[in-house]
Design goal:
heterodimer, A: 6-stranded mixed beta sheet, 24% helix, globular, B: alpha/beta, TIM Barrel, 2 domains, 6-stranded mixed beta sheet, 10 helices
Chain lengths: 417, 421
Amino acid sequence: MKRLSFLLLSCLLLLVLFVQAQTKTYSILIKGGHLIDAKNNINELMDVAIQGGKVAAVAKNIDPSLATQIVDAKGMYVTPGLIDLHAHVFAGTDDRGLSGGFSALAPDPYTFRSGVTTVVDCGGAGWQSFDRFKKNIIDRSRTRVLSFLNIVGDGMRGNPYEQDIDDMDAKKTAEKALANKDIVVGFKLAHFAAASWVPVERVVEAGKLANMPVIIDFGGDNTHPPLSIEKLFNQYLRPGDIYTHVYTELIQRDPVVDLKTRQLKPFLIPAQKRGIIFDVGFGGGSFNFNQAIPAIKAGFLPNTMGTDLHTGSMNGAMKDQLNVLSIFLSMGMDIPGVISRSTWAPAQAIKRPELGNLSVGSEADVAILTVRNGNFAFRDIAGNRNEGKQRFECEMTIRNGRIVYDLNAIASAAPRN
Amino acid sequence: MSKVLRKFTMRKISILIISILISASISNAQGKLYNTLIKGGRVIDAKNNINALLDVAIKNGKIAKVAQNIDPAQAEQVVNAKGMYVTPGLIDVHAHVFWGTQPNSYLMNGDVGVTADGFSFRSGVTTMVDCGGPGYKSFEIFKRNIIDKSQTRILAFLNIVGEGMRGGDYEQDVSDMDYRLAAKAAIDNKEHVVGFKLAHFTNPDWTPVERVVAAGKLADMPVIIDFGGGKLPIEDLFFKYLRPGDIYTHVFTELERRDPIVDLKTRQLRPFVIPAQKRGIIFDVGFGGGSFNFNQAIPAIKAGFLPDLMGTDLHTGSMNGSMKDQLNVLSIHLAMGMDLPSVIERSTWKPAQAIKRTELGHLSEGAIADVAILSMREGKFGFRDIAMNKYEGSKKLECEMTIKGGKIMYDLNAIASNVNK
């Protein structure tokens, strides 16, 4: 009898809680933060309410009693979930480099703690290995994982595979992309060493067939002078195609800043105006202050803030997405500038305009960041040092309306997850 | 003629000067007493009873000297650690790093394990003990895929289950708990294996405990127990089954299926827990995704019962939750009132002793140069347990630099001089 009444009471209590939760208009309300939403031209204090995995309202002073859970974002920046369009997440235990090998990293440990909700794997999989990539990584990750398909059928497997022009089949690559266009956003060419334009032609051909952009890592080696990036931008790439590792200073690669005069080459800003998209792609060997600082001073800013995350960059100068953004703050860019370049700009570059913004009705992928003030320092891949006064930190990441990271327990009455 | 001669001589002289300069700079670099000098930090080294402002010099991967005011001119590279803490590289005795792509394989070559290097160095950790991922049947894969591919020092508690921590029915199969084969694999690989793990067993049956302890006795190694769900009394476990030196993990769990250390009615530490610790049972935090409750930890610590080890139980289910990483676990214990030297000792010298690797966990001269450089950040911070209870703290540890075997593996704010790629 006692047991029965206890049971009844519990049921009643649960019912009340359930009804109460149901009657709330919003599941989560982010209160008091400074919203930066480049698409919607918002850069001010604004509350953001979430319901059913979507952004339900963006307004000043939304009533907290309407929400089941309140996130106290006072003093913080609220932004769309960051998009890293240059990551290497096709991890695996075969000896296959960045294509199911040990150099790549499964995404979830690196994304949410840096405010990232979407990564684009940058050429790990080719058309032959895409299915395994989908099964092992995409389907098992909470991060949204998209893909630039490598023009090499076997993907980014290292050498000699990536030098094999016979394995660069534009048609098959485009077919695989179109068959998986919920995931594939374009094509990658990388690491090609010889002085030949054929691989560039193949990848652009795939891009034309599938109506998707390409992203170019302009390989090269020390046996021949580097191919001309001016020619690449003006004769081979289409508006909307992406050039990554833009601030590299390597002997085998044609740099954006002239090595003698230390001036930005004159064709860069026109190429950008023409629609070529320039990605940072920091990585383990592709970011030099000697290139970036003069380029930025000359008014040439990168379009997207790709990390080139892999095992060789995660603990080095690159570290993570927010460290890359902080480095650009230290070089004089402003907070809205770097946020738009890691939200709305990459969303447009990969033709996913449903991402990278917090319009009402859009998927609730949100980053909540603080900008910490102090004395910080950053390095490039050559070990040069640059000091800064600001560093981004990730306070919370929300993916599809669910809190997936909460550094300092800023969410109230958290339901158990 | 004389002009040509002069020109020739001039050239010769300038070559000579340049050669002298080059050789001087080479001999200068070679002549330096130390490779790396960590200057101005506060050294906390429990083994050597040090808690003082001291410089630490490294040469050839070893600690060369620990002293006040070591001359920076004697080092090729100087690390400015002013205002920071310099500790032995942290040792996480409870991690799950046996990641892989085998379907439905949980923490044995499956997708719940994580890559060690992505978590270790950014948290000051230089050694991780995988806590029961591989069994004797899967140790080879573990060695090939994880130990040999990681920059972090990876050790292992071998699972008493031959298949390892594969989840589901595999871990319930008493017939696959062969203590002889487990002990043999451990002894054959004693460079890497430091003990045995029992975990997740759900029946009220002592056989698995007996088996894992039998393996421990045969190999003369400790065991570490995750006391699954059999509702067996922990008092019996500590006094009738385990030996001094054996480890009980998830010590602050409050789960219905597990006998807790703090009585659920009286909210008092149960009377046998401190005697068990005195007897030599070692208690590990093993925070994980479901094994740390403030309702247990706070009363226990108030009653004078401190955990011996600060294991994280790192895996994909804990990495982004309340646990996060090793330094977050230490910071939570600071929030509950423990002091810095205590939490550092419990993640350096104590775990080194628990796994019988006394060459690790300290900064004695001649020791392997595994070093963590940490800052203590002041502010308002919030922490959660696995039941989502919130606890506030005013301090948080941050990793500034991690050095393993004399090599800088992580440098958050570029505090090292003369860095070459």
